[in-house]
Amino acid sequence: MSESEGQAEARSLDAEDPLRGFRQRFVLDDPGLTYLDGNSLGRLPREAVETARRVVAVEWGSRLIRSWNDGWIDLPVRLGDKLARIVGARPGSVLLADATTVNLYKLVHSALAIRPDRSHIVTDDFNFPSDLYVLQAAARHSVTRVAHTGSTPDVEAIGDAIDSRTALLTLSHVAFKSAALYPMATLTHLAAERGALSLWDLSHSAGALPVPLAESGADLAVGCTYKYLNGGPGAPAFLYVRPELQGQLANPIPGWLGREDPFSFDPEYAPAPGLRRLLTGTPPIVSLALIEPGLDLVLEAGLPAIRAKSVLLTEFLIRRWRDSLEELGFELRTPAEPESRGSHVSLGHPQAFRICQALIELHGVIPDFRAPDNIRLGVSPLYTTFAEVERAVEALAATVTTGQYEQFCVGRPGVT
Ligand SMILES: *Cc1c(COP(=O)(O)O)cnc(C)c1O
């Protein structure tokens, strides 16, 4: 079969890709698989296999309790400093701990406590459900959830919702459904001008694009490490606190590891002087250690190169959508301008769920499905190829033109 125009273009884009060598640094044991779900669970870095062997067999197996003093105890801070370089933060302002949701809980409650005379929280309906649940449960505070239409947030409406009663503005930097990218600096300045604190969820931007945490003056941030940072399933998340604020925050889940000198075993709590006060209990060392190889790969490639490739990949995907998918009923649900989106593209289709099943079962293409009718195609610049994007577009077209999706039922399994 001769090469199509799309395939030829993909081949030449792959040949010119300055990051093409990074793909081999990941475990790729199924050459037929097209993986466009790195925005949900990043691939396994080869180096992490070696790290796992070392941490389990040597550090745990041989060194046992001595490993705490050989580096385990400092791991949340040491890896936090590496991650700080990825999210535009200064050393000493990022900590790895807990799940994103738990970190959000800690930061939301500690932030509200330092704005005691204000009782409003501003967020929007593009934010991640878990974030909204934490906010809804914040006692005595009323939550304004700004509503948007389409795939682009109404930044002006968010701004208008912030007033002298607002204690906290909290948003996702990149929206999990539409991939809309928010103007962090603009909104952070606006919140600060009106006396409110700002908290950003970086789950869909950390490792995919440069994040201006320190530069924008953002007060607080959280994010996960298992998406574009390739840290592994359920790997600990991270939290950021602007250095000037660290001494003011009280951890709402105070624990022994966040105490000043934890090994004093003092029955009275006294917070550690800086960021460490936000630690609670013993970190899950095995999964924490596995985050490092992914961070190293991002630092080696560099955020500017990663972002440049991400933009080319999503541009290519949107161009191919226009060529062959729009006429088949797929609707673009991601901002069309590259500077307004992150690293995935969402396509709406009335048969989205069954189309996703057909892609996985019949074409070896893994997207993800977001209810009710959304197909997310994530591109992860360290390993996604333009050829994979082209294969996904061709498979999407084929499932609809041949009616293949009709053999799949409409019910939903546990994890999408
Ligand atoms: C993936 C994701 C999370 C994950 O939260 P966990 O508590 O770590 O499971 C949180 N927020 C956003 C915006 C996400 O995309």
Short description:
This protein has 416 residues and is an alpha/beta fold.
Please, could you describe this protein's structure?
The chain is an alpha/beta fold and 416 residues long. It contains 13 helices and 13 strands. Helix 1 runs antiparallel to helix 13 and helix 3 packs parallel to helix 10. The chain is globular. The relative contact order is 0.16. The structure holds pyridoxal-5'-phosphate. The site of pyridoxal-5'-phosphate has 13 residues, from helix 4 and helix 5.
Order of helices and strands: HEHHEHEHEHEHEHEEHHHEEHEEEH
**Portion in helices:** 25-40%
Count the beta strands.
13
> Given the C-alpha coordinates, what overall shape results?
globular
Q: End-to-end span in angstroms?
A: 34 Å
Largest sheet: 7 strands, mixed
Supply the number of helical segments: 13
Keywords:
12% strand, 4-stranded antiparallel sheet, 36% helix, binds pyridoxal-5'-phosphate, 13 helices, 13 strands, 7-stranded mixed sheet, alpha/beta, 416 residues
Outline the fold blueprint.
Blueprint: H1 5-16, E1 34-35, H2 46-62, H3 75-86, E2 94-96, H4 100-113, E3 120-124, H5 129-136, E4 142-146, H6 155-161, E5 166-172, H7 184-193, E6 197-201, H8 213-216, E7 220-223, E8 238-241, H9 285-289, H10 292-301, H11 303-325, E9 331-332, E10 344-348, H12 352-363, E11 365-366, E12 368-370, E13 374-378, H13 386-401
Parallel strand pairs: 1-11, 3-4, 3-5, 5-6, 6-7
Antiparallel strand pairs: 2-8, 7-8, 9-10, 10-13, 12-13
Bound molecules: pyridoxal-5'-phosphate.
